[in-house]
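Protocol step 4 of 6: structure prediction from sequence.
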Amino acid sequence: MNPSWFPTTLPPDIWLRNVQVPAAVLAGVPEPADVEGLVRLDLRITAGRIAAIAGAGTAPGGIDLDRGQVWPCFVDGHVHLDKTQTWPRQPNPDGTHAGARSAVTADRRGYYSESDIEPRFDFGLRCALSHGTAAIRTHLDSYWPDARAHWAVFRRLREAWAGRIDLQAVSICPLERFAGDDGVALADEVADSQGILGMTTTGEDGRASSPEFQASLDRFFLLAEQRGLSLDLHLDETGDASSRALDAVARTAVRRGFKAPIQVGHVCSLSVQTEAEARATIGLCADAGLHVINLPMCNMYLQGRQADRTPRWRGITMVHEFGSAGVPVSFASDNCRDPFYAYGDYDMMEVYREAVRIAQLDHPFGSWAASVTATPAASCRFTDRGRIAVGAPADLVLFRARSMTELLARPQSDRAILRAGKPLNVSLPDFRELDQALAVA
């Protein structure tokens, strides 16, 4: 819903005056940033695109935003839209990772038809749109042959949502599922859908160092190479320090000379390894050109959870150290209201706010504003997304907040969203809409 402080309509040619933009999302910075990384500007919007970026005080007229912040629309680079909103019918009994896997397995066996997936998937997209997201990469359960239903829904909704949210999809299933004819069929389905090849391995038993694991990993890489596919992997989502799949993936990418983009998610176990082990793996990731995406809210929810015991760690990976090594780091929503995370609403400002608090991405705030905008856009190759640049679409999120502490102190539920320079007047969908689909009384 459009907030009361911003007009419900705009002329096709308008200046937004006296705004502040994170320098990390600006293509070309005409003015120096302040200590919080914000640049004070005037922005001109013409025919749905950004026509000019100038120092504050340049514009002859327009709307004075009184130093309110302007961000590009968000890019959510790791979600699970085919699982979303299933918590009411299939909750996690104890909040653990094992409990989540068990609950999702039961849900997969009982439901997950096209008619079940599609309304929940669409509901998640409407949530994301309402919060200001313009591009999403979703993982899809891909247990062949049942994976066909998930990919069919994705292709349908990708077309239906074109122009509102750019969509990409990634397969997710255990690495061993890529053995034999089923693995070939699944890789073909991903390629035919212009998707990204993905898999998961927790590596909790230290098997990443075994010859069998390496053989499976090489086959997985080969399937991608033969089809020209990028990779996106769930790795080391555990507090077991012996889990070293990330190391194996980085070494394999370097050895094979793999050129397509690779994004790796979670890699939680890195934070409980020795400093020397972790830094060696981070160096390998830099050499391999990997991109890291962290899921701070879901990882905090699952990792280190034991009954009647306060968690001793936060479940996130070494984001500061990755950044210092030149490895791009993004943050994303991950699961929303399913057995892996009971909460969430595809609100990337919530993700950013919680990432700042959990990972201490402040004092200074530096360039971390890019971690939910420009960085995932580049990592996922969403063109024309995540940056404020002359010629880019005027897809913007406007906040009344003048500083980073104002921005992060509140949920910013009164934000205004512009799509192609026009105020977006949509409301969050009501959870009651899904009661019938979920058979919830």
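Step 5 (inspection) to follow. The chain has a mean pLDDT of 95.
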